[in-house]
Amino acid sequence: MDLESITRWEEYSRAKDEMMIHTHIPEAPWYEVESEDKRRARINMISHLLSTIPYREVRRPPLEIPARPESRGYRRPPRVETPVPDVTGGL
């Protein structure tokens, strides 16, 4: 958000509400996610999104995994020192 948006919050909210009234159609509905608790909002949205995708079981033939070839001397270079933080450890 920029500083100007703070003073125009009501105008932006009215414009959003008006846009949703005119663009919410059966073929392309808008969904609103209660987002006071961001973690719950994300989980609810993922669950809802997945529930809208038709699912049917797909039968697949068994997968045959070939034997791994012998090593030809590959050595992994040192890891880059900019890892992604493990936020899941605290969940």
From TrEMBL:
InterPro entries the record matches: P-loop_NTPase, PPK2-related
GO molecular function: kinase activity
Positions with biased composition (Basic and acidic residues): 64-73
Statement: the UniProt record of this protein carries the keyword Transit peptide: no
Top-level taxonomic group: Bacteria
Region: Disordered, residue numbers: 64-91
Name the record gives this protein: Polyphosphate kinase 2 PPK2
